[in-house]
Amino acid sequence: MARTSPNIIVTGTPGVGKTTHCEALAEKTGLRHVSVNQVVKDKQCHEGWDEEYLCWIVDEDKLLDALEDEAKEGGCIIDWHACDLFPKSWIDLVVVLRVDSSTLYDRLSARKYPEAKLQENLDSEIMEVLLQEARDSYDEEIVVELTSNTADEMESNVERVEAWLVQWKKDHGGE
Ligand code: ADP
Known about the structure:
Elements: E1 8-11, H1 18-29, E2 32-35, H2 36-42, E3 46-50, E4 55-58, H3 60-73, E5 76-79, E6 93-98, H4 101-110, H5 115-126, H6 129-137, E7 143-147, H7 151-171
Parallel strand pairs: 1-5, 1-6, 2-5, 6-7
Antiparallel strand pairs: 3-4
The protein binds adenosine-5'-diphosphate (ADP).
The site of adenosine-5'-diphosphate has 14 residues, from helix 1 and helix 7.
């Protein structure tokens, strides 16, 4: 059955502002913020904790099973630093957030990331790893790159996605 509400991925390197954007978007649009990190933890979709990188070692098959019903229903704003695992058929819009290196450095330092993890994430942002992953995984026209250095940029990003949602609903026979 076709979705009556779209699924959106908000992706990007850790620290770019995914969670902040997803929370603001959920509040403005009524769509559900799906924090993949939380799902991984709550539904045990992992094979343990990586002590070096301080993150869960995700079991992608379990994660997809855990998300499938919600994704089929639609109306999810998926918050995750990867996007290539989600089937194309689930996803209507991919927002890739970007930040300047100095801003990202400050945000990740504030989180007290270990040096190796901080450096890896800075490199990943500079090399546009997540943007490339999004472009490789989804049709070009549904991938949008937005900057998230300032509160003003975030506000305009949220407005832009809200406008996109209104259009999506019109195009799909809604209000
Ligand atoms: P992510 O979910 O991508 O790891 P967060 O949403 O947790 O990133 O944001 C990381 C930090 O950066 C938070 O302290 C948040 O308040 C701040 N932040 C995020 N986006 C912006 C922005 N556009 N302008 C200013 N600060 C931001």
